[in-house]
Specification:
Elements (H helix, E strand, L loop, with lengths): L2 H15 L21 E4 L2 E4 L6 E2 L10 H11 L8 H21 L4 H8 L5 E8 L5 E2 L2 H9 L10 E9 L5 E3 H9 L52 H4 L10 H8 L11 H13 L4 H5 L2 H4 L9 H12 L7 H15 L2 H8 L2 H8 L8 H6 L13 H15 L1 H21 L4 H13 L3 H11 L10 H10 E3 L5 E3 L2 H27 L5 H16 L3 H18 L7 E4 L5 E3 L2 E3 L1 H4 L2 H14 L7 H8 L4 E3 L6 E4 L7 E4 L12 H20 L20 E3 L2 E6 L15 E4 L2 H20 L11 H12 L8 H15 L1 E3 L3 E3 L1 H5 L5 H8 L2 E3 L11
Parallel strand pairs: 10-21
Antiparallel strand pairs: 1-2, 2-3, 4-5, 4-6, 6-7, 8-9, 10-11, 11-12, 13-14, 14-15, 16-17, 17-18, 19-20
Length: 841
């Protein structure tokens, strides 16, 4: 391929798409000065046409180029005149090659001609192994497979070709003939991201700030995206808010259609049937009844039922995770993750007053009792565990970038300005550069501004939806085999929508905080904020769509068929939860079994000389005084003098490196944790038992050890209404516990051969003890252990309802309210007929 051929291709593309590389200051005047560089783009990658180069720029890869590779080429060959912005040139080259291939796809008749310019008939040929995704080839099949397996490439083994004809042109490009054929036909998929940001200004534009003067009005967000703005005026006049008397009659067009000889051609009466047919095409006829429950979310995404499947499939593809994101989208996703995981998003929530957070929490136009709501915690609060919101934030950003690139373009521009500044001024590898850029982006208003703009965006068509509505529709379905669609589980839909709502509210909180930095008058600023929230946020289309999705998904889930998961037999006393049942003759003796096994395991650590002391400590007739190190038992049988036994003076015998001792220590740990969890009146959750109280908070009252546990259930989002719940161990278990804490554990901790389990393992210990005392062959989850204890409580102290629950005081011991126990832990009651009929007679 001659230099003239390279110029011909470049000129052809430039004239078609307007992406002339003269953006990099290539002069075209009558008396041309030397160009700053000699880089030209071709169908298979950039070349340098400098007289002493005339070669491909990227020596190791086809089609793609990086700014680092460009810098290395310029540095090694000295083929530039002046300064060249390598990052901008990289983007321009990527745009060029994408435009070249798009031109062929739109006009395949030009394909063969353009390929022939790149690879004329005199190109050399040979046969070798290759990758038919990126064109990498080598005589050694092993090296091609090594290339495919490398984590640096996105090639797969399905791309491996054992043998193909390889063409090599004069610039050193070696491309498989099969790939050149696909390029000519417009069927080749470029092995680079086609999401490319256009050239950026040399310095980032200043972020707009909210005005501090009352004359400037109260609008904090102005949507300047032409394709995403509201379809109607934000300040409706009388013509849009009132209807004349004729408005409540049939319109002239409707009357003319109805009076015509053929009647009305309107599809109003057939719409329902057409949407049912469309849902059948999307999900299959068996799922139509379920799909109809989601119709209010699906209808607004298209005006024509026939287009529903194609539209929904496209949106669902936008929602699928993408490993080939454009650099701007990738940086926004990284920045969103850093914003949440660093705690910055939560800090911005805490910086706002409860009244503002209360207003953010409200959806619609109702006027709440704000003071009561604030006292009850009905305000938007920080998210303690962000693991559910981070993926939704990243998924939303990716979706917007694909579904409506123009909406996110200005944010991309600012992102790339930050990225370019780091690229040009700091010497670091790509991962470090991206991480640094993401951190800087997370400190700006870019992410909060984008999320707030999505929150207040109006419908993009009359009575249609917006980007958030499209995202909600996409997350309602998933793509199955061969681009088929299926509905997600209602619970999954509801949780995803709830997480999206939190993401957008976090964005709004950070947006408000960022705007406060430039405010000088708090009174005016607070007025602006209140006006903005009440006029644009509370009544926003996005709020309406998300809350509708949460509500309808929950309604669908509540109406789904259920199975009996918790029950007891009121005659036999057998209890059932999950897939496990326990007979009464087993559970009624479980505490006695636990006491016996615990006592036996604990005594294994003491010599026979301590037997008498152990018997006195464990005798419930003797007075137990708990004072940790000074804990003691007072023996007074009325016939001899009073005897005081300090428990810490009873020393266990722990020979070093004894496997039996290690086993018995583990057994003792299992019983003390399991008894706290399941035999302390009620039952604790598996996560809660990991936070046993410090021993200084234990108390012995009426011969029983009292302790308190605190549940974190439903405290994920910051409203901490749960109270400590008091639990009690039985008198014998209280003494076993004190003996273990005061005598055994200090000796184990001082030993070099033995260790105590970490608290993170306490849930496993609890479930193991439950299985041990209930005669199970294997352990079950702590959830089902707790549910089985609840069924036992319902049987022992029943409170008849539709199902059988238990009394409020007992329900409290499970760390939830009576209503929660009634709704979720009550028992279906069965009566098993023990009479067996004999039909032999």
């Amino acid at each position: 391929m001659s230099k003239r051929s390279a110029d011909a291709i470049s000129t052809a593309v430039d004239s078609t798409d307007g992406d002339d590389l003269s953006a990099n200051n290539i002069s075209t005047t009558a008396n041309p000065s030397p160009p700053p560089h000699y880089i030209k783009q071709t169908l298979v990658g950039p070349i340098c046409t400098h007289p002493k180069c005339n070669t491909k720029v990227n020596k190791t890869k086809n089609f793609t180029i990086s700014d680092d590779t460009l810098r290395e080429h310029f540095k090694a060959n000295k083929c530039i005149n002046g300064k060249v912005n390598a990052s901008k040139l990289e983007r321009d080259l990527n745009i060029q090659i994408i435009n070249m291939h798009n031109r062929i796809k739109s006009n395949p008749t030009k394909g063969e001609e353009m390929v022939a310019l790149c690879f004329p008939n005199n190109s050399s040929r040979k046969t070798s192994a290759c990758c038919d995704r990126c064109g990498y080839n080598d005589i050694s099949s092993a090296r091609v497979k090594q290339h495919i397996k490398s984590k640096k490439n996105k090639c797969l083994l399905i791309h491996f070709k054992h043998s193909d004809i390889i063409l090599q042109n004069e610039y050193g490009f070696r491309i498989p003939q099969a790939i050149l054929k696909l390029i000519a036909e417009g069927k080749f998929v470029l092995p680079i991201s086609t999401m490319v940001s256009p050239s950026m200004p040399t310095s980032p534009p200043l972020l707009q700030r909210a005005s501090n003067s009352s004359e400037e009005g109260t609008t904090l967000i102005q949507n300047n995206n032409s394709t995403s703005s509201r379809t109607t005026s934000d300040t409706p006049n009388s013509s849009t808010t009132s209807f004349g008397s004729d408005s409540f009659m049939a319109s002239p067009d409707e009357m003319n259609a109805a009076l015509s000889s053929s009647g009305s051609t309107s599809t109003a009466l057939s719409d329902n049937a057409e949407y049912i047919e469309a849902l059948g095409n999307c999900f299959g006829q068996k799922e139509v009844s379920n799909a109809l429950k989601h119709l209010s979310i699906l209808i607004p995404i298209t005006k024509h039922p026939q287009q529903l499947k194609d539209t929904l499939t496209t949106l669902a593809k936008h929602d699928k995770p993408d490993l080939n994101l454009g650099i701007a989208t990738k940086l926004l996703c990284l920045a969103g993750k850093r914003w949440f995981e660093s705690g910055s998003a939560n800090m911005d929530v805490n910086r706002l007053g409860a009244d503002i957070r209360n207003m953010i929490y409200i959806v619609g136009t109702c006027i709440p009792d704000s003071k009561t709501n604030q006292l009850d915690g009905d305000t938007f609060v920080a998210t303690n565990d962000v693991k559910d919101v981070v993926p939704v934030c990243q998924s939303l950003i990716q979706f917007v970038a694909k579904a409506d690139p123009s909406f996110i373009q200005k944010h991309n521009d600012q992102v790339m300005c930050i990225y370019d500044a780091i690229t040009e001024s700091e010497d670091m590898d790509e991962d470090k550069r991206e991480s640094t850029a993401a951190d800087r982006i997370a400190e700006t208003n870019i992410i909060p501004g984008l999320l707030s703009l999505l929150l207040v965006q109006g419908r993009t068509s009359i009575n249609g939806t917006n980007i958030v509505g499209q995202y909600i529709a996409a997350s309602t379905v998933k793509i199955s085999n061969r681009n088929g669609l299926s509905l997600r589980h209602p619970n999954e839909i509801s949780r995803s929508a709830n997480a999206l709502l939190r993401v957008l509210r976090h964005g709004l909180c950070s947006f408000i905080h960022n705007k406060s930095k430039s405010a000088s008058n708090d009174k005016i600023f607070q007025q602006q904020i209140r006006s903005f929230i009440t006029s644009q946020v509370q009544q926003s289309c996005s709020y309406e769509i998300i809350t509708t999705r949460v509500r309808t998904a929950r309604e669908i889930d509540n109406k789904s068929p259920t199975k009996v998961r918790k029950a007891f037999d009121q005659d036999t006393g057998e209890v059932f939860a999950g897939q496990t049942s326990i007979k009464k003759e087993i559970w009624s003796k479980s505490m006695a079994v636990a006491n016996h096994n615990w006592n036996a395991s604990l005594r294994k650590h003491y010599s026979t000389t301590s037997t008498d002391l152990l018997n006195k400590v464990l005798d419930t007739n003797n007075q137990l005084i708990f004072d940790f190190d000074e804990s003691r038992v007072i023996v007074n049988n009325g016939t001899e003098g009073e005897e005081t036994i300090r428990i810490k003076d009873i020393h266990p015998v722990l020979p070093e490196s004894n496997e039996d001792i290690k086993k018995w220590i583990a057994k003792c740990e299992m019983y003390i944790v399991g008894s706290h969890c399941y035999f302390g009146s009620g039952a604790a959750r598996g996560e809660d038992i990991k936070r046993l109280p410090e021993t200084k908070h234990y108390q012995v009252v009426f011969n029983s050890l009292r302790y308190e546990l605190h549940s974190l259930k439903n405290e994920t989002h910051g409203v901490k209404k749960n109270k400590n719940v008091a639990h009690w161990l039985s008198p014998i278990q209280s003494r076993l516990c004190v003996l273990q804490l005061v005598s055994l554990y200090p000796a184990v901790e001082q030993s070099l051969s033995y260790n105590l389990s970490d608290s993170s393992q306490f849930d496993t210990l609890a479930s193991d003890m439950f299985a041990d005392v209930m005669g199970m062959k294997q352990s079950i989850s702590t959830k089902w252990c707790r549910d089985l204890i609840a069924q036992i409580s319902n049987y022992i102290a029943p409170l008849p309802l539709n199902k059988t629950s238990t009394h409020p005081i007992i329900a409290q011991q499970f760390h939830h309210s009576l209503q929660t126990h009634n709704n979720h832990y009550s028992s279906s009651t069965f009566v098993t007929d023990p009479i067996v009929c004999d039909f032999s007679s």
